[in-house]
Amino acid sequence: MITDIVKTIYKILIISFVFCSASISAQAKLEGQFYEYATYYMSNIDVQTGQSDVPFFRFRINSNSYPIYAKAWFRASVLSPSLGINAWTTLVAIETNAFQMKADVVLDNRNFTSNTTSLIDEGNPPNVVPVYIKVIESINLSEFESMISAVLTTGQLADGEYKFELNVYSGATPSDLSLSDSRSKTIFVESSSGINLESPGGELADTLFNLVYSTYPIFNWNKGFCRNCETYIRVAEFKVGYHSSPEEAMSDERMLPFNQSESWVKLDDVSTFKYPISGARSLNYGKIYLWQVKTSVPTTNGLEDQVSPIYAFKISNPSQASNSSSNSMMDQKLRQAMGDDQFNALFGPDSPLEEFKPTGKISLNNITVDDATLIGILNQMAQKKVKINSVKIEK
Is pLDDT at 326 greater than 90 in this prediction? Predict the structure, then answer.
């Protein structure tokens, strides 16, 4: 009799242990992602409720066994010196009540706001999951008003860092929930500075000074802050006496892309590009060419195109270029880069370099470079992108 009682107690303990182990091992996990854009237009977001028609995050809460209880917590924080917010500050933090899951549940920012009263799980058939979402923390009124003022002025999020955090808590009952998974993402928002072409070329009227000595020139540009953007380039010939403007030449016939049904050639995420040997029409000495760069930037309104100005350059045959014309061009470039006063002080009458004549040999950091490289540097100096710290004269 005693033996039977012991066996019964033993079986109960085994069953209880297995049940507890299963409860402990069942945990809700997150699968999904935060979506990143270069520009966040606030017209896509209701600042009072957080409701949005644009996906900012989408995560699936799942478990290896059901039913299970879960609770979700979300916080958005900002660090924005442009708004006077110099330390991480909570924009809004919200959390749900503990809800029972009988199948996977999807959390999407479009259905995860203070107005949400229920979620739909992925059961077969789906189950309605009653949920209550409340705001537990938010930015103070003065900082909020500064932010709204910036939003109304620009129509988009102010420059700064924005951090998004999502936690899920789970357990066998509503009263024993613990953190079981978390995800976070920090996004940098910076106003686009546009695309700045660097070399070769410049204004169409200055092609006498914007010479290139290779039929496979290297194009350089700066596209500023352009996270996850797509980059494109195109090249066309400008026919003097035929085209009335660079825009007309660009829309007429392109050297690159070769296929005239295409307007642009898509590149990798680069800021330099060498004219290709194949897949493009050949460039020729003595002719004027135009080039332009475009970026397609992901925003909450979709992809937006940013197009650079059009630069012009002329390809000069190095074997036919005279020293005098080359020297004259270098003089002009030096004058543009240094300014008239500094140039005349060094090269004008009674100056240390009054009789200076270039030798044609150019070196940079003890490495020989060509005229095109020197012209590119002088162009950057003229555009105030680099400056002269000191001048040393060697005799």
Answer: no
Question: Which residue carries 């006496």 as its tokens?
Answer: 241
For residue 257, cis peptide bond before it (omega within 30 degrees of 0): yes
> How far apart, in Å, are the Cα atoms of 248 and each of 197, 244, 256?
20, 7, 15
The one-letter amino acid at 161: E
What confidence tens digit (pLDDT) does each residue in 211-268 have? 888 899 999 998 877 777 889 999 999 998 898 899 999 989 899 999 888 899 999 8
Residue 334, pLDDT above cutoff 80: no
Instruction: Confirm whether 176 is domain-assigned.
Output: yes
Distance in angstroms between the alpha carbons of the first and the last residue of the chain: 116
* Shared-domain flag, residues 139 and 219: no
Strand 118-120 to strand 265-267: parallel, antiparallel, or no bridges (unpaired)? unpaired
Q: Flag whether 53 is in a domain.
A: yes
Q: Structural domain of residue 87, as residue ranges? A: 26-189
Q: Kind of pairing, strands 311-315 and 211-212?
A: parallel
Q: Are 52 and 184 contained in the same domain?
A: yes
Confidence check: pLDDT of 144 > 80? no
Domain presence at residue 17:
no
Looking at residue 45, which CATH number applies to its domain? 2.60.40
CA distances from 329 to 214, 317, 325, 349, 388 (A): 17, 15, 6, 19, 20
Report yes or no: 379 and 338 within 8 Å, Cβ to Cβ.
Answer: no
Asked whether residue 51 is assigned to any structural domain, the reply reads: yes
What single-letter DSSP state applies at residue 354? Answer: T
For 69-102, write each residue's pLDDT tens digit: 999 999 888 888 877 788 898 888 889 999 999 9
Question: How many domains is the chain partitioned into structurally?
Answer: 3
Last residue of a domain, one of 189, 214, 237: 189
- Say whether pTM exceeds 0.70: no
How far apart are alpha carbons 154 and 299 in whole angstroms? Answer: 14
- Final residue in a domain of this structure, among 167, 189, 211: 189
Same-domain pairing of 180 and 85? yes
Band of residue 132 on the pLDDT scale cut at 50, 70, 90: very high
